[in-house]
Design a protein that fits this description.
The structure holds 3 protein chains of 3 kinds. Chain A has 14 helices and no strands. The model of chain A has no long low-confidence stretch (mean pLDDT about 85). In chain A, about 80% of the residues lie in helices and about 0% in strands. Chain A has one domain. By secondary structure, chain A is an all-alpha fold. By secondary structure, chain B is of the alpha/beta class. Chain B is about 35% helix and about 30% strand. Chain B is built from 11 helices and 13 strands. In chain B, the strands form 3 sheets. In chain B, strands 5-6-7-3-8-9 form a 6-stranded mixed beta sheet, with helices on both faces. By secondary structure, chain C is an all-alpha fold. Chain C contains 12 helices and 2 strands. Chain C has a two-stranded antiparallel sheet. In chain C, strand 1 and strand 2 form a beta hairpin. The longest helix of chain C has about 35 residues. Chain C is flat. Classes of the chains: A mainly alpha, B alpha/beta, C mainly alpha. At the A-C interface, helix 14 of A face helix 1 of C.
Chain lengths: ~270, ~300, ~300
């Protein structure tokens, strides 16, 4: 029963988000950038393939983050603003199922979009592969249609699932979309600096209490920086499956914690 | 349990203001019961606390103090929600869905299998007269159509208790009559209907019991007959062929004389007087009786009296 | 949801964050992600960068500056890296092409570039090129002329050029008063410890931490050299008095020439070689290695 209700809410989030124009604007921009990478490849001294992969993966990640943030912060607050939530909460739908359903719906939306963009990237890489000379091909550290890129996509997907949970959390208690966006972007950027924050004491000499505090913040923040295996994958370096499994596990645990907090916040909300 | 809804000193304070929050009492110690079956009208001017009460029953708001129960269960209990339907005030739904998709979605939340959901959606949409438009997206709907979708989604689970918040808003006279007939039909089916409104005439036609709210307080509650006391306030007699002389002579014996047209007058008799002697006197004077009707206290009278 | 359930869920959520941090830590130990050293600059030409960055030259300059520092810092730690410090020069060039008035980039950049190995690439020529580029953009910046004198004095040991740059710096607007005398002293004495000391004292009041610390260290080195001179003089005196050279510090201490084993400013004891009768800094002293031009 629970599963069915959560699934219904999730499916409807997907249906609604998939029709959201913002999504297509971002995807189109990303597509243009990936195509543009082919041009940029020309001016960077024979590094075309690397540029395309670098730019392609980075674009997909940023586009994913933009989609996640802009749709995620509205997941709950939009329903409340539009007042469509009244009829919904009068149904036998526990509030926590509402939140969990929203989460999975957006994760589904973002995943579909990310992998569609990945498919587009592979098309560009395939074209590059077909038109490359033998000499160029020998200089590539990794094949054009490298399946290892998929591992980077798995990491990006896990990263975005975590970001969704963060955006959902802010959506649950803030009615101001602008504020939610600001907070979510802030956490995302801080999380991208997570490695430096955690190893603060190794880098900067400060009062031990300050160092400890900064380090603690670094450990508590969602470590978005640790999902980055783009360089490794592009250079053809091996990535341990254990690393990927651990980071997916990290994303799952942290997302669950953020969703739990969203549930607690949302359970207390009143709707005038 | 005997009651569909029951409240006990239900109170809700809202805090207004950010720097020095001042509490504003939206609902003050509301206590009433709604027995199963029948139509209960929650009446009052705007801002009286009608919507607040309904939202407190559905756990959309939490009480500051006091208790409420729906089917003997606390507000928000999913077992209660399984058996009720709710139409919010000025509802909005999901623009990108069609009416049928929306109602089927909501039906799914009750746990019906997919085919049953679709069948129920079709049925309730036909019931509210939207059968032909059910596959058009909601963004193309007029306000009245959206209101009807709202009613439909409130009925999709065959609820024992139906809660309507301002069900007539946005409807033209035809629509309002249809809703009135629907409410009566629901009553005849044995369901309990609770609706809020500031339109008293609808309440008079529909309700077996009413509660009148003013500034958060329940100022009157009971069946219509109880409230309007049944006692006649007097009689209004309309007669033709009344000469000016006759009118002048009778003026002293009645509360008011109102000329209607040439030789047709309306006489308001006082509360204690029976009309028969007066009519006899008119007949004896050669006037012709047009109508004689008792003046009952209307709900509006009660309302104006209690609300001021 | 009751208050207790809520509290329980919040605690579990916090525990979840803690557990996640634990997973992260475990993963870092078990599967460390070797950083792929970005040895590659996509853009080598400042002019191309300029065109690409459109309106965001200043921002791009900042980013390249940060990359310069990071590149220097990373290579500083990584002694085994084959082409250490190779990117510092090009990155600084990009930074200063995108923002020709970026004073700190010129000043610190020249410091990084001129440090001798193992602390830097030892490319005083690139440092000079960078500073001259800065002066071309900002001819009245006395700091850049001063830094040019510094590089010549300490790294290329071209004292005539150093003196000339100090003189030019002293003539520029807002130059502090100690530069004039510094130019004079450098001209006259160049390479002399006294002149060097005066110059270093001038640097030891710099606002920049790096420069101040380097100056203080050099001053200690000079003090150590003076101390060595004095100690060797004591050794010679001992020989004159006793007809033989001391076999160690104990002899001098017994002779009341010293009160205890002498040590340098960093408390590393001086080393006396009885065979050659020479005094030297302990090889393990933090003041090692001494700058070449100050050795005798």
């Amino acid at each position: 029963m629970t599963g069915r209700r959560v699934g219904l809410v999730a499916w409807h989030v997907f249906k609604e988000s998939v029709r959201d124009r913002v999504l297509y604007a971002i995807a189109a921009f990303a597509g243009l950038l990936v195509l543009g990478s082919v041009l940029i490849g020309q001016i960077t001294a024979g590094q075309d393939l690397k540029i395309i992969k670098d730019l392609g993966l980075a674009t997909i990640e940023i586009a994913g983050a933009l989609m996640t943030i802009f749709i995620g912060v509205g997941l709950v607050s939009r329903e409340i603003d539009r007042r469509s939530i009244f009829a919904l909460l009068a149904k036998p739908l526990p509030r926590w199922e509402f939140i969990v359903g929203k989460y999975f719906g957006l994760v589904l939306t973002i995943t579909v979009n990310l992998w569609a963009m990945a498919a587009a990237l592979y098309l560009v890489l395939a074209w590059q592969d077909m038109t490359a000379t033998e000499g160029a091909r020998l200089s590539w550290p990794a094949p054009a249609l490298d399946p290892r890129l998929l591992w980077a996509m798995v990491m990006i997907t896990a990263e975005m699932a975590l970001l969704t949970a963060v955006a959902l959390f802010f959506s649950s208690f803030s009615s101001s979309a602008l504020l939610s966006v600001a907070f979510t972007v802030g956490i995302f950027v801080a999380g991208l600096a997570s490695t430096d924050l955690r190893h603060f004491n190794d880098i900067v000499q400060v009062h031990p209490a300050v160092g400890w505090l900064v380090g603690a913040i670094g450990w508590a923040l969602p470590a978005f920086s640790e999902f980055d295996i783009k360089s490794q994958v592009v250079h053809g370096l091996p990535v341990a499956p254990g690393l990927i499994a651990a980071m997916v596990g990290y994303a799952a645990i942290y997302s669950a914690a953020a969703i739990a907090m969203s549930v607690v916040v949302f359970a207390r909300r009143e709707f005038k | 349990m005997a009651n569909a809804v029951s409240t006990d000193r239900l109170t809700k304070d809202f805090t207004a203001g950010f720097w020095r929050p001042r509490p504003h009492r939206g609902l003050d110690a509301l206590t009433f019961d709604i027995p199963l079956g029948g139509v209960f009208g929650l009446l009052g001017p705007n801002g009286a606390g009608k919507s607040t009460t309904l939202k407190l029953l559905l756990n959309l708001l939490r009480p500051t103090s006091g208790r409420a129960e729906v089917f003997g269960l606390p507000p928000g209990d999913v077992r209660a929600h399984q058996r009720l339907g709710f139409l919010p005030e000025n509802p909005t739904f999901y623009d990108h869905l069609s009416a049928h998709e929306l109602v089927a979605y909501f039906a799914g939340l009750f746990g019906y299998p997919a085919a049953d959901c679709r069948a129920r959606a079709t049925r309730v949409l036909d019931q509210v007269g939207l059968g032909a438009d059910r596959d058009r997206p909601l963004r193309q709907y007029s306000k009245g159509m959206v209101q009807r979708v709202g009613i439909a989604q409130a009925l999709v689970n065959d609820p024992e208790l139906v809660i309507f918040d301002e069900p007539m808003s946005g409807l033209d006279p035809v629509g309002r009559r249809e809703v009135r007939e629907l409410i009566l039909k629901l009553r005849d089916e044995g369901r309990t209907v609770l609706f809020s409104s500031h339109i008293l005439s609808d309440a008079e036609l529909l309700c077996s019991r009413v509660g009148i709210l003013a500034k958060g307080k329940l100022v009157a509650a009971g069946s219509l007959t109880e409230l309007t006391a049944g006692a006649s306030r007097g009689w209004e007699v309309v007669a033709e062929g009344v000469t000016d002389v006759l009118a002048q002579r009778l003026r002293a014996r009645v509360v008011r004389v109102t000329p209607i047209s040439d030789q047709r007058y309306s006489f308001d008799l006082g509360g204690a007087d029976r009309p028969e002697p007066f009519i006899a006197e008119l007949a004896a004077a050669g006037a012709v009786l047009v109508s004689a009707a008792p003046l009952r206290t209307t709900l509006e009278d009660v309302f104006m009296e209690r609300v001021q | 949801m009751t208050g207790r359930t809520r509290a329980l869920i919040v605690m579990m959520a916090l525990a979840g964050v803690g557990a996640a941090a634990g997973v992260l830590h475990a993963r870092e130990s078990a599967y460390p992600l070797a950083p792929v050293a970005e040895r590659l600059l996509y853009l080598r030409s400042g002019k191309t960068a300029d065109r690409i960055m459109l309106d965001f030259d200043a921002l791009a300059a900042d980013i390249y500056w940060i990359r310069s520092i990071q590149s220097y810092g990373r290579d500083l730690k990584n002694r085994a890296q084959p082409d250490r410090f190779a990117l510092v020069g090009p990155l600084l060039d990009l930074t200063t092409t995108l923002d020709p008035h970026f004073l700190i980039a010129y000043r610190f950049g020249s410091v990084f570039l001129s440090f001798e190995p193992p602390n830097g690439p030892g490319r005083a020529d690139l440092a000079i090129q960078l500073l001259e580029k800065g002066l071309a953009a900002d001819p009245t910046r006395w700091q850049l002329a001063y830094d040019l004198g510094f590089v010549h004095y300490f790294h290329t040991r071209n004292y005539a050029a150093a003196a000339e740059w100090f003189e030019r710096a002293a003539a520029l607007p807002n130059a502090p008063p100690y530069i004039g005398p510094l130019a004079a002293v450098t001209k006259a004495e160049g390479g002399n410890r006294q002149g060097a000391r005066q110059m270093l004292r001038g640097l030891a009041v710099s606002e920049e931490d790096y420069i101040r610390r380097a100056a203080e260290r050099s001053l200690q080195q000079l003090d150590a050299l003076d101390a060595i001179d004095q100690l060797e003089a004591l050794v010679q005196r001992f020989n004159e008095i006793h007809g033989r050279y001391p076999s160690g510090w104990q002899d001098l201490i017994a002779d009341r020439a010293l009160t205890g084993p002498p040590a340098d400013g960093q408390n590393a004891p001086f080393v006396y070689d009885p065979a050659t009768h020479r005094v030297a800094l302990s090889p393990g002293s933090p003041l090692m290695p001494l700058p070449e031009m100050l050795r005798r």
